[in-house]
Description:
The complex is a heterotrimer of chains A (421), B (247) and C (241). In chain B, 76% of the residues lie in helices and 0% in strands. With 247 residues, chain B is mainly α. Chain B has one domain. The longest helix of chain B is centred in the middle third of the chain and has 34 residues, at 100-133. Chain C has two domains: 3-78 and 152-240, Rossmann fold; 88-150, no CATH class. In chain C, the strands form two sheets. Chain C has a six-stranded mixed sheet, sandwiched between helices. Chain C has a four-stranded antiparallel sheet with strand order 2-1-4-5. The relative contact order of chain C is 0.17. Chains in contact: A-B, B-C. At the A-B interface, helix 1, helix 3, strand 8, helix 4 and strand 9 of A face helix 2, helix 3 and helix 9 of B.
Amino acid sequence: MKMTKRSTAIGAFLVGMMILITSAFADVMIESGYYSLKNSVKATMKKLSEEVDNFSVNVAATFKIDDKIYAEAEEVCKFDMVNQAKETIGTNMEKGEITESYYYADTKQNISKDSKTGKYYVWNKKKNKGMNNEDKIFENPFEDERVMDAEKIADAFVGNLQDVIEVEEIDNKKVYIGNLSDAQVPSLINAISSFIFKHSIFDEYTTKRMGVPYPKSNVYVTSISGKAIENSDGILESIIGSASISADDKNGITHTYTVEFSFDIKDINNTTVTPPDLEGQEVEYNEDSEYVFDEKYVGKYKNDIVKLEHNSFVKVGERYLEITSVVDGKVYGRYYEVYNEAYEESPVDFEFIAEAGESSYYSAFKYNDKNGEEKTGLIQKRQGKQNIYLLFDVEISEDGYGYSYLSYNEDFDNNFVRIFE
Amino acid sequence: MSVFKAAYINELYKISKRKKIMAASILSILAVVGAAVIVYCLNNMVGIRATGSSEFSLLVLSVLSYTLIPLFTAFVCIDIFSGEFTEQTIRLTLTRPVSRAKVFSAKVLAAASFIMANLLFIMILSTIFSFIINGTSFNLFKIFLSYILEFFPLFVFSLVVILICNITRGTTSAFMLSVLVFILFNGLEIIFPYYKSFFFTSTFDWYRLFLGSYINYYKILRCFLILSGYSIMLFGLGYYLFDKKDM
Amino acid sequence: MDKTIVIENLTKTYKNNRGIQDIYLEVERGDIFGFLGPNGAGKTTAMKIMVGLMKPDKGDVKINGYSVLNEYEKAMKNVGCIIESVIPYPYMTAFENMKVCGRFYEEVNNSRIDECLELVGLFKYKNEKTKNFSLGMKQRLGIAMAILSNPQVLILDEPLNGLDVEGMVEMRNLILKMAREYKTTFFISSHLIHDIELTCNKVGILYNGRLLDVDSTDNILKNYSSLENYYLSEVDTNVGV
C-alpha cells in the first residue's frame, strides 16, 4: 500500500510529463498560422528579389468613413529584375479629384511626369558608377537588420493571437484568413494605434483639409481582418486586409473609419518594362551629377564672425572659403579666418582637396583643427544657388551616403556667400 | 469522502480566517477601480478608448492575470503549505484520522477554489465598472468564458508554487523562488519564442483563442493538453514530496 | 489480552546516525504506559512515527490492529495525541482551533468542544485568539484537542510541559480517571520521573535509540525504592555493557 501510493504519485508524474512533452512538441512542430504566413511572406520576398526575372505589383488602398469612400489610391508597379528597370503608374482620388503619377527608372535614367502639365522630367544618371544596393529596384526587406529586430518584437507581442490565423488549402493554393474582433485586440495595441490614428494620421489639420469628421473621443479599434493567398510556387499572390476604427466626432456622433488595402503580385516572368516614348512630348533634362562641383564654383566665399556682447552683435572678423580650381569633380581650396585687431585669436588657415565619394550630395575633405587633430569636413552646393555650405568635424556614415556631426559649434555659420568682384 | 470534505472545509476555513484574504479583496477592488479611472481618463482627456466596445473586463483580466492574481495565488499556496510547515501547525491536521493524500488534495482544491473565487470576484467587479464607464451592451458570455479559462494556467501556477513549498524551507524562500520562476518562465518565453509551448506561462492569454470568429480547436486542444500534463505532473510530484516529508 | 498498541521492529536513522533501532513494544488496553528516557533518546521520534508524522525506515506500528503506514485513517480513528509542544493556529480562537480539529469526527459538535474546553479550564478564553496564549494555556488547549473525540488511545509527548502545579495535578487526575472509567489507553513520555511513577502502571526505558526494559510499575517498586533508582540502575547496567 505504501509502495503503491508512492508509485501512483511517480506514475502520475511520468504520465503528466509525457502528455506535456508530446503536446508541447506537437505544438512546436505544428506551425501556427502566424509563423506559416510569416515564412510565406519571407519566401515571397526572397523569390521576388533573387529568383524571378520580372513581375508586377498592384497596390490599392481605400479609405472609407461610414462606408462612404473618401480617398482611394492605386499603384501599378512593374519590376524588371534583369534590366533593373521599374515603372510605377499611380492614381490617387481624394474628394472626387483624381491625380495621376508616373515614374520610370532604370540604370541610366529616371523619368517622371507631371500629371497636370503632361511634362516629362528626365534625370540622366552618372555613368561609370558601380551598381550598389541603393540602386537596386527591389530588395528583400528581411535582410535589413531593423526589420529583423522588429520581427522579434512582433513575435513576442503577438502571443496567442498567432493562432487566430486560419490556414486553408483551396485548389492547390494556401489561403490565410485572420480576423481580430475588438475583444481580441490587446489593449496596449489598441491604445497605441488609436493614439497614432488620432494624433498622427488623422489629426485636426488633416481632417479639416479632407473635410471629414475629426475623431475626437471614444477612439478604438473595432476589427482587423486580412486574407492572403499563396500560390503553388510558394509566392503570396494576393493580400487583402482591412482595419476599422470607431470614434465619436465633436458632436458625439459615432463614425467608423475603415482602411482597406490590397496587394497583388502578378505576371511573374511575364512583365515587360519599357521606358516611355518621349517623342513629341515636352521634356526637361537634368543631370544627376547636379550636386558635384564644377568650374563655375571657382571663386571666393565669406561670412562674418559675429559675437554677442552686452546684448548687441559685434563683428569680430571674417571667414573665407576660396575655391581655387575644380578638376573632374575634385575641389581644390583654402579656408581661413581673419579677425579684427582687437579680437586677435589664432586664426585657422588650411588648404584642402574635397572629393565627392559614394554620395554625390557633398564633397568631403580632411583638415587639421586647432589642436592638430585630423578631422573631416565637407562642402555642399546649395541647389540652384551660388552659395556654399561648409561643415566641420563630421563623420561620414559607413555606407558613404549620410553624415553626422561629431561636435557642433553654435557660433559657426555654415553658409558662405559668394563674393562677386 | 466525509473525511476529505472535512479537510477541504478546514482549508477553506483557515484561508478565510487569514488577514490576507481581506488584503486580497481590497487590493483587487483598488486595482479594478484604478484601471477604471485610467480608462475613463484616457477616454475623456485623450479621447482614446483603451478597451473595445465591452472589454474593460478583459483588459482587467489581461493585466491582473500577470500581476495581482498570481501574487495572491502564491500567497495563499505558501500560507497553506510553507506557512503551516514552519509554524508546525500542519501537525494538527496530520495527526487527525485523515490520510496525507486527502490532506494534500484538500489543500490543492482549496487553492483552486481560492483562484476561482478571486477570478469571479474580479470578473463581477470589473463588469460592474465596465457598465459604469462604457455603459454599452457587452457580451457577458465572452467575459465569463475568459475568466473561467484563465483559471487553468493559474491553477498550474499554484501547483508550481505548491511544489516549491514542498522543496524549500521557509515562507520567504518559497515566495522568492515562486516569483523568480514566474518571471523566468515569462522571460524564457520571449527569448525562445519558438519553444514557448513548453512554458505554462505562454497559456496565460489562451482565452483569446476563444474570442474570435475563427476558433482553432486543435490549438486549444494542445493548450489544454499541455496544461493537463503540467497539472498531473506537478500534482504527482508535489504529492510525492508531501507524503515523504517528516514533520 | 487486548493489545492496543503494537510497535514492531521500529527503526529510523537520521543523517547524524541518531534515531531509534529495532524497538518492539506492546501496550494493552487500559494501560498507562510511561515512556522514559533522556533527551535525544528517540522518544519523540518513536511517537512521531506512531502518529504518522514521520515514516520509519523499517518496522511498523499497529494501533487497534491497524497499521499506521497502510491504514492510517483507521489506525488514527480513535487516537488523540500531543507531539512536542502544542502549536495551535495563532490567527484563530481556541474555539475555532477546536472546530478545525473536530470536523474530522462525526460525533463532535459544539457542545462537546465546550465540554472539553471546560475540562481543561479554557472555557472563558474560548473566543480569544491563541497567539496571545501562554505556554501552559496552549498545552491545555492541546489536551482539549487530543481528548476531543473521546479517543480510546492517547499518545502524549510531554503532556505536562509548561503546566503549573495545579495543572499537573488536574492533568494526572484526568488521565487516571479516563483510564479507570473509559479504559482509555495512554502512551505518555515524560522526563518527570516522579510524575510517571504516580501516573503510569507500566514503564519502558529508551536509551540511545534502544528500548532497554519494559516492566510494570508495581514490579519495579517491589525491587527498587523508587522509579528513579530503577531508571538509573537500568541505564548504568546497559551503558556498562
